């Protein structure tokens, strides 16, 4: 069986009503590797990430957990040794490790192992958000039962206090604070948050609200790309 | 165990019943109550600055070593601050000897982020001569007893130790171009911000408890750490996955973190004052 490929890109126009929720073009391709049970590549601006999911599979007795599946997250940079991860890559791994179990119903697959393997193809800005999106698409592709989907959104606050979603590398450098949130698809709540720089409480709440709005677009993109994929197969 | 709560087959069930029925935790604390925090500064005489913090049973010691070095090439007017969190096998059975584990690395990264985000010290202040000489502050944070909530304890230990640091005056001799250290003239660092962290654990997807113990951390479905400074600005909202929270729940955590900041700042000031009197 040849892997079914699909390329889907979306560009969100800068609307005049909510100029802050503008997202750049992003693209996704699911099921592009034949060995993993699910795979996806996600391209967002200059950043590109490839994710593969193996499982549920047999678990080593030593790693077995009696009431839930064992979860493993591997991150591999495109160049260099996987053992020596950059700080952002290490952070991504840590986040995915704590994030995936929430959306996956691990207790349904007890005594099984799941492995999420992420390859960072082009390490641009918003590596974390892009990796989260790629991982979610790969989990979806693997057909694992999930409680909700998740997506990553990055916001930057510039020195004048304006909020930009999906900042470019230059915007990120000049900004006063950068935050990345993972938003769940069910209730649009904050699953993960990672921040840099200092900001006020109202700015945080604004950024969360903006990210929640932006997440709607990403979830719509997920939906569109999946529906288009299956419409082609039928 | 001293807390009157023992390991059983179903610790979660026992815990759940207790929390739901009595709105109180196994160690008798209310849901929004921190454990007793104690602080001792200057505990390591061989370090340039040090502090020992206890939050309940959790014990963290921080020692700061200052060395002279050449400034980084990309920022010649700045010095270095290098934090490192060590979780040795001594502090808990969950840690093994060998290279630092995931949690220790994540904690080190978190502390480095807090220093960077909050601007505790302006890195320009620890540069002595632009492009030639600067201080490097090695902040070694070590856990002696792991009973949950190490991030809060690490930040308090770090700030108190930095406030305890006294650096000798250094001049560069214009003729020989060599550094001359005057050990008689010592100066405190200029600490511009006082970040304080507050950690919360989400329990049973709905209940938020403050300052979790190691046991509670294990039973929780999510953790969140909020770091604020004295101007009520946020320096970090760190939530590595776990149960999703709404904006309102986060707001509750932030409000609690702001009051905690006042409590801890008061504690640090009191300890600094009493140290001066000695």
From TrEMBL, chain A:
<keyword id="KW-0597">Phosphoprotein</keyword>
<dbReference type="Pfam" id="PF01138">
    <property type="entry name" value="RNase_PH"/>
</dbReference>
<dbReference type="GO" id="GO:0034475">
    <property type="term" value="P:U4 snRNA 3'-end processing"/>
</dbReference>
<dbReference type="GO" id="GO:0016075">
    <property type="term" value="P:rRNA catabolic process"/>
</dbReference>
<dbReference type="InterPro" id="IPR020568">
    <property type="entry name" value="Ribosomal_Su5_D2-typ_SF"/>
</dbReference>
<dbReference type="GO" id="GO:0003723">
    <property type="term" value="F:RNA binding"/>
</dbReference>
<feature type="domain" description="Exoribonuclease phosphorolytic">
    <location>
        <begin position="149"/>
        <end position="213"/>
    </location>
</feature>
<dbReference type="InterPro" id="IPR027408">
    <property type="entry name" value="PNPase/RNase_PH_dom_sf"/>
</dbReference>
<dbReference type="Pfam" id="PF03725">
    <property type="entry name" value="RNase_PH_C"/>
</dbReference>
<keyword id="KW-0271">Exosome</keyword>
<keyword id="KW-0238">DNA-binding</keyword>
<keyword id="KW-0698">rRNA processing</keyword>
<dbReference type="GO" id="GO:0071028">
    <property type="term" value="P:nuclear mRNA surveillance"/>
</dbReference>
<dbReference type="InterPro" id="IPR050080">
    <property type="entry name" value="RNase_PH"/>
</dbReference>
<comment type="similarity">
    <text>Belongs to the RNase PH family.</text>
</comment>
<dbReference type="GO" id="GO:0005730">
    <property type="term" value="C:nucleolus"/>
</dbReference>
<keyword id="KW-0539">Nucleus</keyword>
<dbReference type="GO" id="GO:0003677">
    <property type="term" value="F:DNA binding"/>
</dbReference>
<dbReference type="GO" id="GO:0000176">
    <property type="term" value="C:nuclear exosome (RNase complex)"/>
</dbReference>
<dbReference type="GO" id="GO:0071051">
    <property type="term" value="P:poly(A)-dependent snoRNA 3'-end processing"/>
</dbReference>
<dbReference type="GO" id="GO:0000177">
    <property type="term" value="C:cytoplasmic exosome (RNase complex)"/>
</dbReference>
<protein>
    <recommendedName>
        <fullName>Exosome complex component RRP46</fullName>
    </recommendedName>
</protein>
From TrEMBL, chain B:
<dbReference type="Pfam" id="PF01138">
    <property type="entry name" value="RNase_PH"/>
</dbReference>
<keyword id="KW-0963">Cytoplasm</keyword>
<dbReference type="InterPro" id="IPR015847">
    <property type="entry name" value="ExoRNase_PH_dom2"/>
</dbReference>
<dbReference type="GO" id="GO:0000176">
    <property type="term" value="C:nuclear exosome (RNase complex)"/>
</dbReference>
<dbReference type="InterPro" id="IPR027408">
    <property type="entry name" value="PNPase/RNase_PH_dom_sf"/>
</dbReference>
<dbReference type="GO" id="GO:0034475">
    <property type="term" value="P:U4 snRNA 3'-end processing"/>
</dbReference>
<dbReference type="Pfam" id="PF03725">
    <property type="entry name" value="RNase_PH_C"/>
</dbReference>
<dbReference type="GO" id="GO:0035925">
    <property type="term" value="F:mRNA 3'-UTR AU-rich region binding"/>
</dbReference>
<keyword id="KW-0271">Exosome</keyword>
<dbReference type="InterPro" id="IPR036345">
    <property type="entry name" value="ExoRNase_PH_dom2_sf"/>
</dbReference>
<dbReference type="GO" id="GO:0071038">
    <property type="term" value="P:TRAMP-dependent tRNA surveillance pathway"/>
</dbReference>
<dbReference type="InterPro" id="IPR033196">
    <property type="entry name" value="Rrp43"/>
</dbReference>
<comment type="similarity">
    <text>Belongs to the RNase PH family.</text>
</comment>
<dbReference type="InterPro" id="IPR001247">
    <property type="entry name" value="ExoRNase_PH_dom1"/>
</dbReference>
<dbReference type="InterPro" id="IPR050590">
    <property type="entry name" value="Exosome_comp_Rrp42_subfam"/>
</dbReference>
<keyword id="KW-0539">Nucleus</keyword>
<feature type="domain" description="Exoribonuclease phosphorolytic">
    <location>
        <begin position="195"/>
        <end position="258"/>
    </location>
</feature>
<keyword id="KW-0698">rRNA processing</keyword>
<dbReference type="GO" id="GO:0000177">
    <property type="term" value="C:cytoplasmic exosome (RNase complex)"/>
</dbReference>
<feature type="domain" description="Exoribonuclease phosphorolytic">
    <location>
        <begin position="33"/>
        <end position="168"/>
    </location>
</feature>
<dbReference type="GO" id="GO:0034476">
    <property type="term" value="P:U5 snRNA 3'-end processing"/>
</dbReference>
<dbReference type="GO" id="GO:0071035">
    <property type="term" value="P:nuclear polyadenylation-dependent rRNA catabolic process"/>
</dbReference>
């Amino acid at each position: 069986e040849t892997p079914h490929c699909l390329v889907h890109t979306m560009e969100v126009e800068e609307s005049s009503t909510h100029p802050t929720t503008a997202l750049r073009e992003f693209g996704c391709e699911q099921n592009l590797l034949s060995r993993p049970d699910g795979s996806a590549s996600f391209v967002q601006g200059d950043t590109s990430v490839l994710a593969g999911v193996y499982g549920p599979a047999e678990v080593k007795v030593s790693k077995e957990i009696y009431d839930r599946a064992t979860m493993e997250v591997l991150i591999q940079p495109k160049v260099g040794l996987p053992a020596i991860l950059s700080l952002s890559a290490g952070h991504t791994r840590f986040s995915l490790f704590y994030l995936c179990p929430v959306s996956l119903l691990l207790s349904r697959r007890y005594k099984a192992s799941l492995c999420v393997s992420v390859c960072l193809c082009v390490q641009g800005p918003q590596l974390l958000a892009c990796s989260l999106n790629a991982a979610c698409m790969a989990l979806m592709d693997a057909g694992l039962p999930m409680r909700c989907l998740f997506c990553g959104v990055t916001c930057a606050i510039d020195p004048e206090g304006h909020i930009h979603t999906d900042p470019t590398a230059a915007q990120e450098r000049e900004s006063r604070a950068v935050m990345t949130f993972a938003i769940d698809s069910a209730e649009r709540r904050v699953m993960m948050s990672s921040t840099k720089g200092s900001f006020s409480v109202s700015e945080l709440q604004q950024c969360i609200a903006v990210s929640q709005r932006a997440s709607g677009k990403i979830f719509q993109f997920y939906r569109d790309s999946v529906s288009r994929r299956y419409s082609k197969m039928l | 165990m001293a807390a009157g709560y023992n390991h059983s087959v179903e610790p979660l069930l026992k815990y759940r019943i207790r929390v739901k029925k009595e709105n109180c935790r196994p160690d008798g604390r209310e849901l929004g109550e921190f454990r007793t925090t104690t602080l001792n500064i200057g505990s390591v005489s061989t370090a340039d600055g040090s502090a020992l913090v206890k939050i309940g049973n959790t014990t963290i010691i921080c020692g700061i070593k200052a060395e002279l070095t050449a400034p980084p090439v990309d920022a010649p007017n700045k010095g270095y601050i290098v934090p490192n969190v060590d979780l040795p096998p001594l502090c808990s059975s969950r840690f093994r000897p060998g290279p630092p584990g995931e949690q220790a690395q994540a904690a080190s990264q978190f502390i480095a982020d807090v220093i960077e985000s909050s601007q505790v010290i302006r890195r320009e202040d620890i540069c002595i001569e632009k492009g030639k000489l600067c201080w490097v502050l090695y902040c070694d944070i070590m856990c002696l007893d792991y009973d949950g909530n190490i991030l809060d304890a690490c930040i308090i230990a770090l700030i108190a130790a930095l406030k305890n640091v006294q650096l000798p005056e250094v001049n560069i001799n214009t003729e020989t171009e060599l550094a001359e250290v005057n050990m008689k003239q010592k100066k405190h660092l200029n600490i511009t911000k006082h970040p304080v962290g507050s950690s919360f654990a989400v329990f049973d997807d709905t209940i938020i408890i403050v300052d979790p113990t190691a046991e509670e951390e294990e039973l929780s479905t999510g953790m969140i750490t909020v770091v604020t400074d004295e101007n009520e600005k946020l320096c970090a909202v760190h939530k590595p996955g776990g149960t999703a929270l709404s904006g309102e729940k986060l707001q509750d955590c932030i409000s609690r973190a702001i009051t905690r900041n006042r409590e801890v700042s008061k504690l640090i000031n009191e300890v600094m004052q009493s140290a001066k009197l000695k």
